[in-house]
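RECORD TYPE: inverse folding
INPUT: structure tokens
STRUCTURE:
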């Protein structure tokens, strides 16, 4: 068993109110984003539709995965958008079960996950379009380019600015909303998601 697998097993066995202290004790300087990702990926795998689990075990597994995402966000191991992306991903996973899970956590229903995702987006649609347009203009002018293999990075000129990083996070969230867009029950929410998804090509940089 790897250390990561052992960490996951130990964390999974703890009550909700003890997990934060366990993580802080295990990582006094803070757990890395890579570690949090490994924990969430393990939680996702544990509730895979191909596994023969009872309804209760699936629900408990999804609740644990949601608690990990909340904790990762609180502890700085995931950004708000990345945490939202994974929440939508769990909601999409829940839709794959042949028999719907009863008493599913609201946040991993299509409507709950979509609402969370919209709340976490750092820009309005108008702001996102402005950032994407500015990014394209800078690229056309040869500015703010990303690093290409073989280029000299000694000058440190290729790190994207904060707003570009945030726009990339928006794109990640929108890519996940595609998975649940046609299963959203609330009409107003569905229209809002549709309006965002219609911007995807305009936001590409």
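DESIGNED SEQUENCE:
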């Amino acid at each position: 068993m790897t250390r990561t697998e052992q960490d996951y097993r130990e964390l999974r066995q703890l009550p909700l109110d003890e997990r934060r202290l366990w993580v802080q004790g295990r990582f006094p300087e803070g757990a890395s984003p890579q570690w949090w990702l490994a924990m969430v990926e393990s939680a996702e795998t544990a509730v895979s539709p191909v596994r023969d689990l009872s309804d209760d075990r699936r629900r408990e597994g999804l609740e644990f995965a949601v608690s990990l995402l909340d904790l990762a966000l609180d502890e700085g191991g995931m950004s708000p958008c990345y945490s939202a992306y994974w929440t939508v991903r769990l909601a999409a996973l829940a839709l794959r079960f042949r028999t719907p899970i009863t008493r599913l956590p609201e946040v991993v229903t299509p409507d709950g996950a979509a609402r969370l995702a919209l709340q976490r987006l750092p820009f309005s649609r108008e702001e996102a379009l402005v950032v994407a347009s500015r990014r394209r203009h800078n690229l056309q002018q040869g500015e703010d380019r990303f690093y290409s293999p073989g280029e000299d990075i000694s000058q440190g000129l290729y790190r994207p600015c904060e707003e570009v990083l945030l726009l990339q996070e928006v794109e990640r969230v929108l890519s996940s909303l595609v998975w649940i867009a046609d299963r959203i029950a609330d009409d107003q929410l569905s229209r809002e998601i549709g309006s965002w998804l219609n911007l995807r090509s305009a936001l590409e940089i």
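NOTES: Residues 146-158 have pLDDT under 50 and may be disordered.
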